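Entry 12.
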Amino acid sequence: MTRGRVYNKIYSEEDWNLVNPLNKELMEDYKAELKQNQKSEGTISQYFADWKIVMLYVYRKLDNKYLLELTKRDFRRYSLWITGDLKVSNARHNRLMSALRSLLNFCEDDDEIEYDINTARKVKGLRKDPVKDIVFLSNEQIMKLKDELIRLEDYMLATILMLSYDSCARKNELFQVEKECFEDKERNHTNIVIGKRAKKFPLLYFDATKECAELYLKQRGNDDLKEMWITGKGDNKTPVTLGTIYDWFVEMSNLLSKLEGKKIEFNVHSLRHSSLENYSVGEHYMCKKLGKEDCLLLEDLQIIAHHENSSVTSSYLKDKKDERLQNLFGIKITT
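Predicted 3D structure (tokens):
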């Protein structure tokens, strides 16, 4: 279950308008605190979506009480509702509970808010889900998916797919991209985005992204929105939420599965792994164009990925130990 799907499943504008205004005020106060601490817009957006889920639950199930009056039992019921009714993963459950605890920690620490004990801290998180194997997509698969999206005239998805592949960007970084940077055909980078640990940098993009972006912006037409990713048409265009981007990659995963005739589950993070791997072995289409098919050095990949050290970058690549042993001794290793 994705973040966007959870949010869309329970959100109702009508119900949201009836949520306790005191609870909304707490959200706005903490949002201002996060902005003051220079948290990225993507992080704040994620928190806000998660807080809305708990506030809607309180409105529907707990008589719209003031959040600071809820008991440990109330928070336990919320925890059970997340897993039972929403059927989210353990990891998603823990993120929702973490967002709630963070909000209450803020209330506990604020001298102007009368709240002494964050009872949500007493509700334990769930055991982590088993770690899934990373799905690496080949350059051929990514280009095949891009071509199919263009054939379907889904140019926005084609653009975000290729921008992800070119730049190795994280979801939150893609979310911050603005339209203006693609209107200059000579340009090869986006506006400045804020990544992990408040690092600031542009995302690089190349020919395939430019091709898709040109088609997308022509299809989109004129509007006053600065955001690159939107929903709606005409006067009803609005920027998408961060969760929507996750859902787009699920949609593209399903489309590639149909094209390949087998189940292929990938997400934004898979593209980050795939991009670095394909750059590392010279398979990325830009390596071939630049005549660097031998591969990019690990230090180069570290810069592209905006990692603190090369060991982190190395962990994003395929484990090639068996391949090296096979080449060394001329044998075949099967698993």
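Annotation: The CA atoms of residues 12 and 56 lie 9 Å apart. The radius of gyration is 22 Å.
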